[in-house]
Amino acid sequence: MKTDILIVGCGVSGLYCALNLPEDKNVTIVTKNIACKSDSYLAQGGICVLRDEDDFEAFFEDTMKAGHYENNPESVRIMIQSSQDVIADLVSFGVCFEKNGESFTYTREGAHSRPRILFHKDETGKEITSHLLETARSRKNITLIENFAMVDIICYNNNCNGIVGRDADGDYISIIADYTVLATGGIGGLFKYSTNYRHLTGDALALALKYDIKLQHIDYIQIHPTTLYTKKHGREFLISESVRGEGAVLLNSKGERFVNELLPRDIVANAIFKEMKKEDSEHVWLSLAPISEEEIKTHFPNIYQKCLEEGYDVTKEPIPVVPSQHYFMGGIDVDGYSKTSMERLYAVGETACNDVHGRNRLASNSLLESLVFAKRAANHITVNYLPSGSQGNYTVDAAQYEGYEEKYKELVLAAIEKEKKSHE
User: Which pTM value belongs to this model?
Assistant: First the structure.
């Protein structure tokens, strides 16, 4: 198979990148599962935006402080200054954010000094991703292939010429491309407890390790403070940080508050772990009592319904919550245009590390960062486009990929552990 530009992954970064590429280029998007099974769909809270120029310094400082000042200041500046254009694009694609009359309604989450987060109920990610997906499906130059797992990169002399993938029938197929964009999402599938889909196992990281593509901060893994505690197996259900932003409080078994709920995520998560250890408990409690019943049912309908299904009425009682793996701040090292250390290869979204987030991500910066740098990747490819000359005659040796899934998982986990130990 031959295409002009190949995008691996169809979350917000992959889709938005595709939509910003010229319509005279053939764009192929492949995704490991069905199109709607991306973590972008799961984002509840919202997306940050620079409300006005007076907010720039505060937005910048909030992002840097949450990241323990290990962020790349230039990447943070680019993200913030590009935010209003990205929101305008999303609205043009049909995305609806909550409004008060003609003006946007803003909410606040942990570690934000003021409300600057746009949202759609408590499923902002679904609202954004579904509209991007619908638009991508309508473009004649974009082909979407579902249930196609990347298993290898095709490269010569540090030039990426496409990938090898396994299709829904289990056949191994090569896709030759002039440019390849990795948008494979996070690594939650490597962990026992995570808010991520289980099929997100860091495949791009495994291939980066295989081909010596530069990585950065792969031990920077965020734990979200509040997921609904359950003994059921599967993906953990996130209780959005905006719930605490609107007033919900964390309580121990005695009904006592033990932490400022609006501190950065890593600090709140560590406080919860400390309290659980102190009380020898498996969870703490989150009370939504400070939030009106009307606000709960209109702003957080999905959370309200899910908790009801689990036997908790959040309008009447607190819910048990526990921290879980949530986000990956590290990843494939990229520059300000999402370009990797391998020629003709880009990485965007949670797969990439442009160092916007530093050691700890500020709430609701993930969707924004993914979109901003996906568009920059598309623009950079467009301006610098040169055909690779590859004709698509790559022969796939399927035997070498036997058992690749477990091997790749072990490779990534070993690399993360090695990185952790290097800081000890």
Answer: 0.93
